[in-house]
Amino acid sequence: MTSRPRKKEDFPWWLVAAGAIAVASAVAIVSSDVYSQILATVAKGLWVTLFVTVVAFGLASALGLFIALLGLSGSPWLRQIARFYVEIIRGLPILVLLFWIAFVGAPAFVVAWNWVSAPLQAAGLVEPMQVRDFSLLWRAIIALTIAYSSFIAEIFRAGIQAVDTGQVEAAKALGLSRYQRFRLIVWPQAFKTILPPYGNDFIAMVKDSSLVSVLGVADITQMAKVYASGSFRFFETYSIVAYVYLLLTVSLSLGLRALERRMRREQAP
User: Fold this and answer.
1) What gap in Å lies between CA 147 and CA 144, rounded to an integer?
2) In terms of pLDDT, which residue wins out, 125 or 208?
3) Which CATH superfamily is domain 35-263 in?
């Protein structure tokens, strides 16, 4: 029985075209004082964008893994709680959740904190918390964390369930604890299934981090919005914003594909 030949990947002409456009755009930016000034202004928000993306995605991953494990637990109540969380959060637009956390959740948290810490305030140990003390940056990060944790929970759940139960039973028969089974047997295999959609969610987080600009957080989009409203150079400004985001997302996408290919080569006999 002969094995089927592997299909050769198409030559990435799209990447050649995208690279040519990126180089031509870079030359145009460098040779234009207007575009150079816009890029310098927009770049001031780059670190805020990266900070929001990395912190929110890291927190969302931890919360998502916790929710996924609840959904796979032996308790039907815990499974129902996890399903309730995932379905409700996934059903909300991220922008709506962002507004709710920023203007409803944060003030409610401040009220609850002041009520709980009232004895400490009376003793002069802590000061009453004001709503303005809860920074808009962290309100945005919390909103993105909650929003993405529901998607990541489903990715983790599907990846863990894809692992052959026979291997888990064999590990249990060998006397491995639940933590050891998860760390040594389940997670290494689940990660190979999880990686593609998990990486795609990270790339999506880079783009959705632009939503924090509606709260005035000084990310790339907000810096561009301020510049464009003052200079009325909307075409030039948002062209630069699109260029920066494309550089980030396409670079991450290529890195993710390279990692996937490397893992496939390591798995190949």
Assistant:
1) 5
2) 208
3) MetI-like (1.10.3720.10)
